[in-house]
Amino acid sequence: MKRKKRYVQVGTGGRARMFYEAIATVYRQECELVAFCDMSQVRMDFSNKILTDECDHPAVKTYKHTEFDRMIDEMKPDVVIVTTVDRTHDYYIIRAMEKGCDVLTEKPITTDEVKAQAILDAQKRTGRSIRVTFNYRYAPHHSKIRELIRDGAVGEVYSIHFEWLLNTEHGADYYRRWHRNKVNSGGLLVHKSTHHFDLVNFWMDSQPKKVFAMGALNFYGQAAAVKRGVTNFSYRYHNSPYAKDDPFAIDLESSPVLKGLYLDAEEESGYIRDRNVFSDEISIEDTMGVLVKYRNGAILTYSLNSYMPWEGYNVMINGSKGRIEYSAMEKPYINAGGKKSDEGAMVYHHIKVLPLFEAAYDVEVEVREGGHGGGDPAMLDDIFLENPPHDPLKRSADHTAGLRSILTGIAANKSIASGLAIDVDSLLSW
Q1: Angle at 279 (CA atoms; ends 276, 280), nearest 5 degrees
Q2: Residue 169: burial class (beta carbons within 10 Å; 0-12, 13-18, 19+)
Q3: CA 93 to CA 256: how far, in whole Å?
Q4: What is the pTM of this model?
Q5: What's the CATH architecture for 135-220+282-372+395-426?
Q6: What digits encode the pLDDT tens for the residues 270-290?
Q7: SS percent in the chain: helix, strand, coil, step 5
Q8: Which residues contact 219 (CB under 8 A, 6 or more apart)?
Q9: Is the bond leading into 108 cis (omega within 30 degrees of zero)?
């Protein structure tokens, strides 16, 4: 009998389930999950209960985060899945490679240029592989944009305008959670926009050269809220007398998953999942504009606002032979607060090509089920199948793609802080 590929997973919060559930069900003939690692035993126990009760899979061994090395020594995994808080990705990625394992990591690969350099150096030193889970690449409509550009629908790309809207359900959630502190997440220009900057890199087969950005905390946070007459500044929403009438409040008690992963684990972990979005301890922006010059000469204008009435994006791609207009609405969600298939699920999309001197035409794209516009199932097949379907678009993303995606956001953060344009090549020594 052929040996299954062995996986361990470090970090069992909201982002973890997509991976361990997939291994335990769809890919169990080829893959084997053998252990969890986390700072919270409560979270690991809850995740094991999902395995046993919902996946018909035996509970796996658990290790505290301080026992990471021991877990690898004892369980001898082939691959370490990293789904921890962003600021700790570098430690687990590097240590896994040093211990002889390959790595599958959630985006962003890390949060700043120092950690990025350490990851790059460790990969060169160990020769191990790192795969970054850019599920948006696999969404059919995003893949179609790559095909259109590759096949010359607009000729040489000169400029892209990319506007991303996060609504007051999903967008607000970044200000309730650990992401609200830039040291944890790198801010939304790293944590969230890594998806979008990667798409642009992927679409054009290029990488950023120079970045200028501006950003501010205009809507969330106490100072902004006071200007609008907000009066609820409770530390958190759980057991708050104001929560009932607050549209930004979430109820951890009402969701078995949120309760099991976070509320029940608070005493052990110290992590508060439902902080008030208008408290005075938020260090990330909610309104961001970025200007990027690419090595191929193209210019990107990027906008991200996280307090919008709907969720989705508008993309305009301008080239020597015409223009692509691309818009989409996604289903908003609260991380771990509902079905995984609802996360980033497509409500509608529209792609129009407008050639020079010719009639415009709509581009039909198959709508697929699953999270992130149908990208999640396709990505998981590509990751976990022993013989995945042939992919002429080469959507699999390694550490190079992961690092290039965050360099735009890291440079943007530096530009916001300094007021200067940032040379991307100065951030990382390849």
Answers
A1: 160
A2: middle
A3: 31
A4: 0.96
A5: 2-Layer Sandwich (3.30)
A6: 999 999 999 999 999 999 999
A7: 40, 25, 35
A8: 225, 286, 287, 306, 307
A9: yes
